Structure prediction request, 792 residues.
Amino acid sequence: MPKSKERCREIREEMRNTILRKSLLYFARNGFAGTKISDLSRNIRIAQGTIYVYFESKEDLFKEILRIADYKEELRQVRVLSRLPLSARVKLGKLSERVLERLKNDEMFAAKIALNTQIMLEGSGDCSALDTSYQSEIFSLTAKIIEQGQREGTAVEGSPMKLADYYWGVVYLYALKSLFTTHYEMISADDLERTVLK
Amino acid sequence: MPKSKERCREIREEMRNTILRKSLLYFARNGFAGTKISDLSRNIRIAQGTIYVYFESKEDLFKEILRIADYKEELRQVRVLSRLPLSARVKLGKLSERVLERLKNDEMFAAKIALNTQIMLEGSGDCSALDTSYQSEIFSLTAKIIEQGQREGTAVEGSPMKLADYYWGVVYLYALKSLFTTHYEMISADDLERTVLK
Amino acid sequence: MPKSKERCREIREEMRNTILRKSLLYFARNGFAGTKISDLSRNIRIAQGTIYVYFESKEDLFKEILRIADYKEELRQVRVLSRLPLSARVKLGKLSERVLERLKNDEMFAAKIALNTQIMLEGSGDCSALDTSYQSEIFSLTAKIIEQGQREGTAVEGSPMKLADYYWGVVYLYALKSLFTTHYEMISADDLERTVLK
Amino acid sequence: MPKSKERCREIREEMRNTILRKSLLYFARNGFAGTKISDLSRNIRIAQGTIYVYFESKEDLFKEILRIADYKEELRQVRVLSRLPLSARVKLGKLSERVLERLKNDEMFAAKIALNTQIMLEGSGDCSALDTSYQSEIFSLTAKIIEQGQREGTAVEGSPMKLADYYWGVVYLYALKSLFTTHYEMISADDLERTVLK
DNA sequence: AATGAATGAGTGTTCATTCAT
DNA sequence: TATGAATGAACACTCATTCAT
Prediction:
């Protein structure tokens, strides 16, 4: 008797997500070239062949990872925040607290940030593969908050985009630290804010 | 013919340095796993075999690169600076200006910082390979300057080591940017100082 | 419930035959190495696992195919024909007409001939797997008819076995054509006869 | 000191040809799917990697083989023959003798014919890869000789193209035999001619 | 010393086969 | 019994390393 079609789809979806989730961490830590399918599959505790049931190639798997490692949720938060009737200082305070909180507790979040920023840095090559629109909108929204801060006299002078870039660069820096280092001293929200606030 | 022998050694030394210099950049950009000897040799415009005349293996080459990519010169500067009868604010100002200046103009400097920090992050694995003593002394000297700043009331509160780590982390961040991005906005010395100064 | 059991056996037999029939065509067209179980099962519209309910392995399936792709029926016809009180010319004429007729209309027949001849050509390897006695009896009966023709002065000179081999070789040739080509010009019975008749 | 550029090219050309020549036989005997790179390289007595120094992939190697396994030389002969002021019977006699001679003595010739005809039969798929123009010109020249024979009353009736196809089909048949069978009885030029001559 | 063709261990990928459902 | 996801041995291919020139 055939398996129920529905159940089958569920199982597939579940396995696919397991592979994606575990691979995200692996790729973030070891890079594309440094990740071997054999190690990866041992890490996920599946056979090498199983990966190829769900993905066409190592590269395809990597691209799918980048697709799911987007900033949809983060963007939503920043959007909401930027619209609230708050001072830039408060907005950046709340944002920083949330971001650092997740960096500490959610390894996947750190991996996502690390992977995306790496791709953005290497850039050029295969931009097509990656939808960077979420990221760039986060940057421009952050820049707007900084601009608001400059008008309010709480943010430092300088190009808001440069400062936003600086702010998220520091987030990337601590994403790397949390990915690679077991014992490290996390900066405080104050430290992070200081990139853009007086 | 002692002179000819001398000349021979010179030529050898020159080739060896060329390989080291070009490889430093290549490894910094592509990582160890992402660097193929075939690509590397094409980049240097020598035959693959030539690399093995000067280095025992890819790993040996990499270790030699790390050996020359030390912070001897930087350490010297920081040492001198920390001993001068200056305020912490001025010391950090001068340090920041010099570091950002080199980051902009000296690609090798950026590569050196990127490579070292990467190794430090991945850490654990082969610490033996890398002499991190220069780096850690720079860190502790920077921490001392920050401590001085805290006494003088110009530096922010918090663990001086954490703040030094933050300061150099940002330097690493912009080393990466200058390595990978062609057009980017460099932060100012003020921006960099703000990681640790009020 | 004896009836239900009987019915069950029937269904099994039916499925088994479907697999054998469809596989015969597939193997004839693509060869053993060129036939993937995944493609085959998709072609039959069953799951891959189902094949293994009826056959132990790909090789077992192939051997079973060769077992059913015998020349029992053809042998019977040639036997009857060779015993009739007819001239060699008439015998070969009737044989040629029947063979070409089936080649045109019965894809399974073409596949059978193609597969068997291929196996005979590659030969040596696994002769054990294939009972070539039917085939060789057809050859020797054909040789006898040719001998008769030589006595009657209608067949060309030369070793009767060589000529029989030639005759059936041409049949193989057009079996291949009908298997692979959609539009081709079939030779006439006269053309086929001419391999052995003046 | 670098190897002489010229000598290098020679060595490369030589090895490339060795691989092509030996692979032609191997692919002709075992087909594309049935040919393993490991077996092939063992057969040529080189390392597997060496094949990839000269060819991008197994498929690329196969395509190159088809490119060299053309009928340029055969076409030249048929062209000359068809222009000579001879009767069709004599032309076909000479052609048949030459072809059967080469089939017996030149394994490469048999492999070439076997491979090309196989490709032509499977056809459709990747016609682009193979230049079939030589082959089709041989066919049409042969058809013209047959037409001449029909006018002279020596060739049998029927579509000249069909008969040319038949003639070369038989050549393919005995190419297969000479490739696969060690002991077989080769047909005579007379036998071959009889496909198209009365 | 410098070369680049040759190597083979190691990596990515396929596919016959198994097995829980 | 029929299914198709999971498996891992076998295959295609890569790349650090060697070596004859």
